[in-house]
Design a protein that fits this description.
The chain is 48% helix and 13% strand. By secondary structure, it is an alpha/beta fold.
């Protein structure tokens, strides 16, 4: 029997990158998966369905804008109506903007805090009653190495990710005597389409080969000089869903090639 047969997982921001990788891993372990996000939603939902084919999982999709609480409430109403609730909540939705604080657009700050931090509050508050009632649940917040350390020109992102780590600890304490656990995963550089664009832009700007741009990017922060993969983050997510992690609570688990060990 697969680890998550009979459970339903919601992964926000799961149409590409880390979120899609985590959704695929959950599907392979038998979870019904609700996908959320923008872009080619049919293709990603088909990938998730294929990953869980052997376990006969069900998939769903809801296009809630994670910056809007009323749309998040509608997402959870859908999950309750069509799937009976959410057992595994992976808060992954996120955006980024880079600028000096004095030049940071106010609307970009507000959007980053809303999507990267406040959305996790709204999803968690809505998931928690059902998890408590069933006395089992997993809340896994995809934070970042920037939830543990800072980088210049990323004030909003760093503030939001530090906030996610603090939020994780607080809710883990609130649920410490229950079957619900709350943890955060803190990836370093992950080779997502967003990061590949940074590599492409760097190569073009500096007139260097893509391989050199990749090594230079990693070398600034990540001593392993290797990208973390969405598949590795999916495996850690599955461990946090397993009985082996029943007493792992309130942790910010770095998967960063040594970034935060420096």
């Amino acid at each position: 029997m697969a680890l998550l047969n009979g459970k339903t997982a919601l992964v926000t921001g799961s149409t590409s990158g880390i979120g899609l990788g985590v959704a695929l891993g959950l599907a392979r372990q038998g979870a019904n998966v609700i996908v959320n996000g923008f872009g080619d939603t049919e293709a990603c939902r088909a990938q998730v369905a294929q990953a869980g084919l052997a376990e006969k999982i069900r998939t769903g999709f809801h296009g809630a804008d994670m910056s809007k609480p009323e749309q998040i409430e509608d997402l959870f109403a859908y999950a309750e109506r069509d799937f009976g609730g959410v057992d595994v909540l992976v808060n992954n939705a996120g955006i980024q903007h880079v600028a000096l604080v004095e030049n940071f657009p106010v609307e970009r700050w507000d959007a980053i805090i809303a999507i990267n931090l406040s959305s996790a509050f709204h999803t968690t508050r809505l998931a928690m009653p059902g998890m408590r009632r069933r006395n089992w649940g997993r809340v896994i917040n995809i934070a970042s190495a920037h939830g543990l350390v800072a980088s210049a020109q990323k004030s909003a992102y760093v503030a939001a990710k530090h906030g996610i780590v603090g939020f994780t600890k607080a809710v883990a304490l609130e649920t410490a005597t229950t079957g619900v656990t709350v943890n955060a995963i803190c990836p370093g550089w992950v080779l997502t389409p967003l990061v590949q664009k940074q590599i492409d832009d760097r190569a073009a700007r500096e007139g260097i080969a893509l391989d050199q741009a990749r090594v230079d990017l990693l070398g600034e922060k990540q001593p392993s000089l290797q990208f973390t993969t969405p598949e590795q983050l999916a495996e850690l997510t599955l461990f946090l869903c397993s009985p082996g992690a029943d007493n792992v609570r309130g942790q910010a688990w770095a998967v960063d090639g040594g970034w935060t060990a420096q």
